[in-house]
Each structure stands twice: as structure tokens, then as C-alpha cells.
Amino acid sequence: MTAPRQDPLRDPRFFADPYPTYDRLREGCPVQRIPTGSGGHQAYLVTGHPEAREAFTDPRLSKDTARFFASRPSNRDLHPAISRNMLASDPPAHTRQRRVATPLFTTRRVRELRPYITRVVDDLMTAWRPGTEVDLVADLAVPLPVTVVCELLGVPESDRDMLAGWSHDLFDATDNGRIDAASHRIGDYLTQLVDTARATPGDGPLHSLLRDCDKGGLDRDESISLAALLLVAGHETTTQFIGNAVLALLRHPEALDRLRRDPDLIPGALDELLRYDSPVSVATFRHSTEDLSLGGVDIPAGFPVLIAPRAANRDPAAFPDPHRLDLDRDAGGHLSFGHGIHRCPGAPLSRAEAEIALRTLLTRFPDIRPAVPPESLTWRRTRLTRGLTTLPLAL
Question: For residue 50, what pLDDT is reported?
């Protein structure tokens, strides 16, 4: 096995189409050491499906980011609400925070939210007319999940576009200064929002969340970090999910026509759409706390380990003919929401938003088609997620 000499995830061609790179890496070895960034740092990248599942559940792969960087110099300046949230912790701290977050996204709670989600989608499409053009990303995929999660957090409508912009900057893979600045804007805003809610009695959604935080034993900083995680993780991946799913269907007219003729098939198609082009490129940070072996590769203690769900979802060992979109495939084993104790608790809400958005789109505008040539589409340059900058549609 020959390890790459440059970070393969920063090649401009990778952002346009990551799958040839993932295939090449996986064929060489499903777990291999790669350079990350331009500072001489290295990490282990996991591209195989069985290896990714194993890595997601191995307790020797810690998510405690603060522990990893405690003895390592860093020029980063992330707000603590962003850098020390539930995704950057191990049990028992993770367990306490997840116990508070999970009830927000139970099947019953999401069922109760469906009428609200439907109203939001309806409102967003009110001005859409057959024969005109819209940008699916800016006009639906971004505002839908932002509106829903901001409603859950009690964020005023006047502030929601601003928070969406900061969240967008937080995922900028090309500018650490921009990322750090966005983290402080989000962290400072939510600190003020939480402190104001604590000082003002009420029965709003944020007050309810904070009461749950108190019952769960979360302190002030943990409550703020949980709010930040819900805000950012609660909409970024859903935005990419919706955009990627619509693009995949546009590129596979037979699948699009099938769902258009029978929208009741959409819930069952979501897993395959998630598998085919996952909104998550690389799972959040993990590091080895001791020497271990993964996929037959020895990983020394103290190394970052990057799990790539998008690559694992196209592993032919798990999904035959993986580069084909097949709505009849059993794709329930995809890893787009992770696996194990860190599996995304918001998955039911994300699925509901995507289902309602797709159903409404295909029902109201059955003749949608791309409004620009495929080669003109551009992708956001982010390491963690994969999504389009715009998706112009002709209605």
C-alpha cells in the first residue's frame, strides 16, 4: 500500500466528484494513513463499510477533542460552545447530554412537528410558479431546516437568516479564520439567548429545553453547547440531504418519474438517497487513545481517525453495484447518520423534513428539470459535508 503524499480530500477535483478518490483509496486499503491539510499532520482515513461500522463503536476511538489538543499547540480559536459540545465528548458527559437531546426527536415528537414542517414548506413554495426558475438550495433546502430548528430553539424570525449565514461560514474548509469567527458569533448569540431565557420565566420551546437541561444535570455551558449543536447540526446536514437527493433524482429520470407517479414511495426511498450521496463526507473528530488494529491496519495511540460515511456507503462489499441509484435496494445499513452511541439523534426529524419537501415538490411541480447544464453546478468546499452551492430548477 502506498500512502498519498498530499491530502486527497483537498484536491479541487475531489469536491466535484469524490467517489473516484474514495474508490482508489478503498481499493488500496480501507484504512490508511493520509496527510491532512498543509501543516505536515497525518490521520487515518476509514473508507470501508465494515471498518467504518467498527470504528464508530470502538471505545478506543475517543471523541474528546479537548483531551486530544490539551498537550498539542493549536492556532485555532473556536468558541467553547462549538468545540466542546456533545459530539466532542465521551461517556459519561456524552451520555448526560444525549439523554436531554434525544427526546426532542422521538417518533412521537417528530409526528407532532409534521404539520408545522408542512406549513413551512407550503409557505416557502407559495411564490413558486410553473414555467419559472427557483434555486432549490436557497429557496428550500436552506430555509426549511433553519426555520424548523430555530423554532425548536425559540430563535426570533428576524435573526434566522443571520444564524444560517454564520452556520454556513462554520463549514468553510478553506478559511480557518472565517470558521473561528463564525463559531464566536454563534456561541455569543446563543449564550445571550440562553441567559435571557433563564432570566425571563416563560413556556417557550427554549424554556422547555432549558428545564430539560436542568433535570438532566447539564450546567450553563453544556446547555449553551447543546443549543449550538442543535442549531448547526440540526440544519446543515438536512440542507445537503435535500439538495443531494433532488440532484440524484434529476440525474436518474426513471427514479424521479417513479416517485412522481407514486409519492407514497418517497419514505422508502430515503435510505437509498442517503446512501447514494450522503450529506456527511467525514464524521466529526475521533482519535486513538491506545494502540489498536482496524481493518488489519495498526493505528498507534494519539492519531486522528477520520471515518468517511460517503465512502463507506459506496463500498461494494456492503452494497453491490454501489454507484447505481436503486430505489428497490435495502439501504438501511447506510452510515449517513453514523452508528453506535453517537448516531445522529436528529435523524427522524431530518428524514421527515426531506420526505415532506420531496413529496410537496414532486406533487406541485411534476415537470421539474435542471435549469443549468450539469457541468456548471458547483459544490461547497467543506470537509465534513457535501452539498451544492446552488441548484437552479425550471418548474
Answer: 98
Peptide bond before residue 370 is cis, with ω within 30 degrees of 0: no
Q: At 292, give phi and psi (nearest 5°).
A: -150, 165
The Cα–Cα gap between 325 and 252 comes to 8
- Polymer length in residues for the chain: 395
CA-based max dimension of the chain: 61
Contact of 317 with 53, CB cutoff 8 Å: no
pLDDT on residue 80: 84
Determine the pLDDT at residue 38: 57
**What Cα–Cα distance (Å) separates residue 208 from each residue in 25, 104, 113, 151, 156?**
46, 10, 16, 12, 16
Q: Any idea what DSSP says for residue 133?
A: E
Cell of 202: 416563560
Cβ contact 240:385 at 8 Å: yes
**pLDDT for res 389:** 93
Beta bridge partners of 299: 292
The rounded distance, in Å, linking the Cα atoms of 346 and 212 is 17
Crossing angle, helix 107-124 and helix 347-364, to 10 degrees?
40
Do the beta carbons of residue 341 and residue 94 sit within 8 Å? yes
Given a cut of 50, the residues of the chain with pLDDT beneath it are none
> Angle at CA 37, nearest 5°, toward 391 and 378?
10
Which residues are registered as beta bridge partners of 385? 280
* Cα–Cα distance list, 90 to 52, 76, 187, 337 (Å): 18, 22, 21, 18
Q: What is the pLDDT of residues 227-245, one digit of tens each?
A: 988 888 878 899 999 999 9
CA distance 145 to 166: 15
- pTM of the predicted model over 0.90: yes
Are the CB atoms for 26 and 49 separated by under 8 Å? no
Distance CA 246, CA 361 (A): 10
d(CA 201, CA 235): 28
pLDDT reported for residue 300: 96
